[in-house]
Amino acid sequence: MSALYEKGTPHVEGYRDMDVSTVAGVGNGVRLVDVREPSELEGLLGHIAGVERVPLGTVEEACGRWPRDAELVMVCRSGARSGRAAAQLVRKGFHRVMNLRGGMLAWNEAGLPVVRPASASPLLMTDVFDTLLARMRELGSAVPTTTPQVLLQAHGGAPTREQFLRMLELLQAAGQVAVKDPGAWEQVLRGCRDMLAVARPESSAT
To answer: What are the tens digits of pLDDT across the range 17-60?
Structure first.
């Protein structure tokens, strides 16, 4: 049994949160369980090689075949669903359960190896920005399309990933009171967040 569990941060629900770099450093010596839906594993964020595919809704049934002392790292898009899965397993008597902090968003942002469709095209920061503006126009959003442009200009037109994330947070807050379809707006921002996790800065383009 590895010592991975001891490196985690204890969570109030009884499992431990793990940084992506720590999990990646273990290599093939860790059991990863991805609780996203099958389509997500083949989507933009991809999946970690060798991961077990167990959608969140089937975790309680699947875990009946797992030893209670197994070291398990639960994975999802952002760490939220996998945290719920980890808490379920703790309640079932598992005592070496971990949650991948930040999920596949953090894994991609760290530049760690990902299995994704061969047809996936490389993305640049400008692609994320162009997609955001196009989707805002399609939705007829009450949030002016000039808003993200102004926010980007405040950073010299070439923001870092962190600054772009902050911009999405500001747009989310503005959209909560301005847009006609909050659900569609959330999907736009979620999609841009996923794109941003895999996008490269223009300076690294070849």
So the answer is: 999 999 999 877 789 999 999 999 999 999 999 999 999 999 99
Is 64 exposed, middle or buried (CB count within 10 Å of its CB: 0-12, 13-18, 19+)?
exposed
d(CA 194, CA 45): 7
For residue 15, the tally of other CB atoms under 10 A from its CB is: 28
Nearest-5° angle of CA 185, CA 191, CA 195? 145
Active site residues: 76
Find, among 118, 130, 124, the residue nearest to 205 by Cα. 124
The residue type at 145? T
Helices 161-178 & 125-139 angle (0-180, nearest 10) = 10
Q: Which two tokens stand for residue 52?
A: 């077990």
CA atoms of 36 and 116, how far apart (whole Å): 15
